[in-house]
Please model this.
Amino acid sequence: MQMEKKKDGIRKELLEELLREYKNPEDLIGEEGLLKQLTKALLEKVMSTELTQELGYEKHDKEAIKGKNRRNGTTKKTVRSKHGEISLDIPRDRAGEFEPVMIKKHQRRFDGFDDLILSLYSKGVSTRDIRTHIEELYGIEVSPDLVSTVTDGVQDLVREWQTRPLEEVYPIVYLDALRVKIRHEGRVVNRCIFIAIGVNILGIKETLGLWSAENEGAKFWLSVLTEIRNRGVADIFIACVDGLKGFSEAIESIFPDTITQLCIVHQIRNSLKYVTSRDKKALMADLKLVYTAATEEEALTALDAFETTWGAKYPVVVRSWRTNWEKISPMFRFTHDIRKAIYTTNVIESLNYSLRKVTKTRAAFPNEEAAMKLLWLGIQNVSKRWTRPIPEWGVSINQFSIMFEGRMPGTTQNLITQKI
Model:
């Protein structure tokens, strides 16, 4: 017998079978309606397929190797969906290693393939590979339009995130930029993406925003800092930056009481540009005595000794440390715990490294909006791990409260007392 033609991708006979007892809308979308039942059945089938792929053999396969990890029944879990709460039977394995992709551990909400698509997209997986992955894993074809619609929907979240109110005080803020390739008027250009990470009163890191410009410069950083101020930030104690000309002046024009700390790693990198390979090891050993000194007086003594040894051969290096000393030296005012947190912008360099991993699969973004969308998703992935205060924060924040007396609101001070 000739198979019935498909309607909208589903066989007509199957639709008739599913709707045989349909009498009113409640039968379709009600609490016990068909859509809810189908969602439950499909989810449980998908998770069973996932477990089969992980174990490497089908359910009830008698050829399965004895002693090998195998199925171990199911456990109940309730998730919320567009059709209300759904009670699911989540398959288990004896080793306790299986975690479904479709309904992740601790996930309490299901909105179709949206979360899966966004998860893959945020890791740098291309639209084409997302479709292939879903088809291979679940045997379901996903149209390019669906993937685009889901990822485009992120743009509203990006705008909301970018304009959200910020906290009143951030003891430490790290400022840096990375470059991405974006198509513009028919050609690929490098754009600077400016990133700010704040450490709040409780010591938790938070990305404050993303901004795009053609080149990195103090003038654009001035507009970034102005926006941060307009979004509610009244004070920053310490701003950790690279050696960009005019950076500290831009910061001080918006936050006049903020201490600017130059990243020592950037300073060292810039110094080594002028040093031959043969001299690098010995020069670095002498330079280390400068930036690891216990006090500024000790550091200046070490810098004098460094100049005596290397000044004639590398006057540019010595001049760079002398010229930038006002921005290098603030760290010597603080104890080891605070100094360790502020002497480098590694916090933001680490984020940039993670973001480069998700952007490297893109030869160039079609536009700035696409770049921001993927970077935002990458930040959401990274920030899931930012759940604990930075090391030794309890000691550091108490020192901050003394050193920056009167700059913490009373309610904030109470919060510190309660949480730390």
About this structure: The chain has two domains: 19-59+68-112, 160-403. The chain is about 50% helix and 20% strand.
